[in-house]
């Protein structure tokens, strides 16, 4: 399945785009997505160790399963306020 | 009142939003753009957000604060875009029957907002360089976007924040 990942802040800057698109096997997890992003977008690799992911606007863990129409976002360490 | 705005924050509107005849105290917190961090000077800050999730998280924080303290009102507003020195990027107002609860809730709200709400700031330094602030992650050549040819030394974050997975104490 193909998933789109929203990118923000340094991740957006490194990828040069506000969305990343990766191809994943069905029933892939956030951990699979992290690995696929590193392969597909090498400039993102250095920052992927410190990001978390949100699925449908909620923080997800590495075991969270992804579905084709999920809204997925890559969340670098936040610095609001 | 939960808002994400690109306009200057109307602080009077926050105070109006938490008015209540049951309140004996109202506390308003503003996070503002500081010029000096260590030995570096800031020219401006640029904020961006994952807006839908940020608004949702801010609403969850307001609900959680109301469970923890006997509040009579709460209001959270975060501004996005470029902010000049002294301008408020975030405003939080809470009211409660007694001041102790309003102070505690206000402190918890700003601390937790900085840990979990998906908003990011970019420092535009006076020396012409700029970089995203990602607490817990040392600034690196890949993380800092040098606008000038001058090498940018690692800088302390403008204001401390935290990673959702790595909460750290912080203060604006």
Number of helices of chain B: 3
First-to-last CA distance of chain B: 21 Å
Query: For the record, what is the CATH homologous superfamily label of chain A?
Result: Beta-grasp domain
Shape of chain B: elongated
Question: In CATH's first tier, which class of one domain in chain B applies?
Answer: Alpha Beta
Shape, principal axes of CA atoms of chain A: globular
Q: From the coordinates shown, what is the CATH architecture of chain A? A: Roll
What share of residues are in beta strands of chain A? 25-35%
Provide structural commentary.
Chain A is of the alpha+beta class. Helices cover 27% and strands 26% of the residues of chain A. Chain A has three helices and five strands. A five-stranded mixed β-sheet of chain A has the order 2-1-5-3-4, with helices on one face. In chain A, strand 3 and strand 4 (58-60) form a beta hairpin. Chain B has helices at residues 11-17, 51-68, 99-116, and strands at residues 2-5, 25-32, 36-37, 40-49, 73-79, 81-84, 88-96, 119-125, 130-133, 144-145. Chain B has a domain at 2-39 and 51-119: Alpha-Beta Complex (Aldehyde Oxidoreductase, domain 3), CATH 3.90.1170. With 172 residues, chain B is α+β, with helices and mostly antiparallel strands. The two termini of chain B are 21 Å apart. The longest helix of chain B is centred in the middle third of the chain and has 18 residues, at 51-68. In chain B, strands 3, 4, 6, 8, 9 and 10 form a six-stranded antiparallel β-sheet that branches. The chains are: A alpha+beta (81), B alpha+beta (172). At the A-B interface, helix 1 of A face strand 4, helix 2, helix 3 and strand 8 of B.
């Amino acid at each position: 399945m193909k998933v789109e990942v929203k990118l923000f802040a340094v991740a957006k800057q490194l990828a040069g785009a506000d969305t990343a698109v990766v191809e994943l096997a069905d029933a892939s997890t956030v951990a699979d997505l992290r690995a696929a992003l590193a392969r597909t977008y090498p400039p993102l690799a250095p920052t992927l160790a410190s990001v978390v992911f949100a699925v449908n606007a909620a923080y997800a863990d590495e075991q969270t399963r992804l579905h084709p129409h999920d809204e997925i976002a890559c969340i670098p360490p936040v610095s609001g306020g | 009142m939960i808002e994400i705005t690109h306009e200057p924050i109307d602080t009077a509107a926050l105070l109006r939003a938490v008015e209540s005849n049951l309140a004996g105290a109202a506390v308003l917190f503003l996070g503002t753009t500081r010029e000096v961090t260590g030995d570096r000077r800031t020219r401006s800050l640029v904020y961006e957000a994952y807006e839908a999730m940020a608004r949702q998280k801010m609403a969850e924080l307001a609900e959680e604060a109301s469970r923890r303290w006997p509040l009579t009102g709460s209001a959270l507003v975060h501004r996005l875009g470029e902010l000049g020195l002294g301008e408020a990027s975030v405003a939080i107002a809470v009211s409660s029957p007694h001041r102790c609860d309003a102070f505690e809730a206000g402190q918890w709200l700003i601390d937790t907002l900085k840990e979990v709400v998906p908003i990011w700031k970019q420092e535009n330094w006076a020396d012409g360089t700029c970089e995203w602030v990602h607490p817990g992650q040392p600034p690196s050549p890949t993380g800092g976007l040098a606008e000038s040819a001058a090498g940018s030394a690692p800088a302390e974050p403008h204001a401390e924040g935290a990673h959702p997975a790595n909460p750290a104490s912080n203060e604006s």
